[in-house]
């Protein structure tokens, strides 16, 4: 993999959960219903980068992260890690991927086993993956430096398994040994690991290893790991706890003895235990107090620099995203709608959904209290039955009117909302008009009252005064609703007000700042909103 290639490449990833898919459902002839949690997601993450994945709760962010790590099996699509497909890995290759890709879970209270001590939690990944590792094909070698002693009388031997603690380069694990005369070395602590003294000579190894020295005709130095596997794992746990800001004397305590922020630090230490290259951070600060959030985010920043980590940060908190990320992917109802550099996306958002998300962030400055906000209408649709075309169209304030329809966008948005309510039959007829004004029989009005009922219903559903032609179309459709002919009303409104946004799903094109929206799609007939009819 070259330096310009992504470490993680997600291509058309899909993850569906199926309802009505049991043996009994199949025997009864029920068709399975897919819940489209993740539906065609694609993005890249470069080495050392932090990509933020942001969106409303339930949009599929966490499922995306779990499927990328193969904690969930995909329905379709692919994830490549370091050039290899994650879903093709088996055996040793899959185990290696598990070591290189870790996760920090959202809930620091349920993600730690309450029956295990903190030391046991942090060392558990080391035990599962049989750390520390040694390779018989790796050569062990020493680089010697002397001070006040001739190098000709010094011999150094290195155990074959020092690659447990020394990362090999080109198949060679190199340790750095320095031998000084006692006069040059001065006072030393012979009980300190990595330092040994014998008859006027002091030997020291730079790595976290043990060293022995003997003086005879010459000086013989021996470098070894010097600790049992259990002790190595315990030392690793102590080091990780210190790196995440906890005390080593807390190893024997249990999770319930820690605060939320401390538990999240323990989860981070556990994720770092195997020295991964890539980490999924699934809302790592959402369950924490604001002051603790800042501490954890700063810790993650420092650890990324220290360990050369690559992050996928999942969050619905835009302030966290802006503080930590290099690029941001915005997700809505299982799809990515916009990806861009963090500063560019926050300063110049393109997709109407991204703008609405940013408008929802409270501003501390009183200068912005009168700013205009793009509010969203309606609720998030169900992933069991997502809208056709652009999935955001049912709430979008910028939905595109048909090219031959001379009507302003705000009015068209109201008409689209009316259409959706008619199509879903989300209109209560019993509350129309004054008390006893209309006589409903079997949930419908008599044909003679249909026109008057339609005018009353229109006044309740629409706030905008429509141009005459559209007023007539709407009243005609609502008259069909009044007599119970919902299909006729749906068809009447669809033939007049169908938008390109519901016919075609906009693609996320390859670009530095791609956006999936027909407002930026020339083939869909991008145009400015026309002047309203009079």
From TrEMBL:
Residues 365-376 have a biased composition (Basic and acidic residues). Residues 360-393 are annotated as: Disordered. One of its GO terms (molecular function) is ATP hydrolysis activity. The keyword Transport applies. It comes from the Archaea. Keywords: ATP-binding, Nucleotide-binding, Transport. PROSITE patterns: ABC_TRANSPORTER_1, ABC_TRANSPORTER_2. GO terms for biological process: peptide transport; transmembrane transport. Residues 8-358 form the ABC transporter domain. PANTHER family: D,D-DIPEPTIDE TRANSPORT ATP-BINDING PROTEIN DDPF-RELATED, TRANSPORT ATP-BINDING PROTEIN. NCBIfam families: oligo_HPY. Belongs to the ABC transporter superfamily. This is Oligopeptide/dipeptide ABC transporter ATPase.
């Amino acid at each position: 993999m070259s330096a310009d290639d992504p470490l993680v490449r997600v291509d058309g990833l899909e993850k569906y959960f199926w309802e009505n898919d049991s043996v009994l459902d199949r025997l009864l002839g029920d068709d399975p219903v897919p819940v489209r949690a993740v539906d065609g997601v694609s993005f890249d993450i470069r080495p050392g980068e932090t990509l933020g994945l942001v969106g409303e709760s339930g949009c599929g962010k966490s499922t995306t992260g779990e499927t990328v790590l193969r904690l969930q099996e995909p329905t379709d699509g692919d994830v490549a890690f370091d050039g290899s497909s994650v879903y093709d890995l088996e055996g040793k290759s899959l185990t290696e991927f598990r070591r290189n890709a870790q996760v920090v879970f959202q809930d620091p209270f349920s993600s730690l086993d309450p029956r295990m001590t903190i030391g046991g939690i942090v060392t558990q990944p080391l035990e599962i993956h049989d750390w520390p590792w040694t390779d018989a094909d790796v050569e062990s070698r020493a680089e010697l430096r002397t001070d006040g002693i001739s190098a000709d009388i010094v011999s150094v031997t290195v155990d074959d398994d020092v690659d447990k603690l020394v990362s090999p380069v080109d198949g060679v694990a190199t340790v750095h040994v320095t031998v000084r005369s006692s006069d040059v070395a001065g006072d030393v602590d012979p009980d300190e690991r990595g330092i040994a003294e014998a008859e006027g000579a002091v030997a020291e190894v730079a790595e976290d290893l043990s060293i022995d020295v003997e003086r005879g005709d010459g000086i013989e130095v021996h470098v070894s790991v010097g600790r049992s596997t259990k002790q190595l794992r315990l030392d690793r746990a102590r080091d990780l706890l210190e790196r995440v800001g906890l005390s080593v004397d807390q190893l024997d305590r249990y999770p319930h003895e820690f605060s939320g922020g401390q538990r999240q630090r323990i989860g981070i230490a556990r994720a770092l235990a195997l020295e991964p290259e890539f980490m999924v951070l699934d809302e790592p600060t959402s369950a924490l107090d604001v002051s603790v959030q800042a501490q954890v985010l700063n810790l993650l920043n420092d650890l990324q620099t220290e360990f050369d980590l690559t992050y996928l940060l999942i969050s619905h908190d835009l302030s966290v995203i802006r503080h930590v990320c290099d690029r941001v992917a915005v997700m809505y109802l299982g799809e990515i709608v916009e990806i861009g550099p963090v500063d560019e996306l926050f300063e110049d958002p393109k997709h109407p959904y991204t703008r609405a998300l940013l408008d929802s962030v409270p501003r501390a400055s009183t200068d912005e209290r009168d700013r205009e906000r793009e509010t969203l209408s309606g609720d998030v649709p169900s992933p069991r039955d997502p809208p056709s075309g652009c999935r955001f169209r049912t709430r979008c304030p910028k939905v595109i009117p048909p090219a031959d329809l001379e009507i302003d966008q705000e009015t068209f948005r109201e008409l689209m909302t009316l259409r959706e309510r008619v199509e879903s039959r989300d209109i209560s007829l019993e509350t129309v008009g004054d008390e006893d004004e209309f006589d409903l029989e079997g949930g419908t009005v008599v044909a003679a009252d249909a026109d008057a009922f339609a005018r009353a219903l229109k006044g309740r559903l629409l706030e905008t005064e429509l141009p005459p032609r559209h007023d007539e179309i709407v009243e005609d459709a609502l008259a069909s609703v009044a007599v119970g002919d919902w299909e006729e009303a749906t068809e009447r409104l669809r033939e007049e007000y169908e938008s390109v946004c519901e016919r075609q799903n906009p693609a996320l094109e390859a670009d530095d700042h791609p956006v999936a929206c027909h407002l930026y799609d020339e083939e869909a007939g991008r145009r400015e909103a026309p002047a309203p009819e009079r």
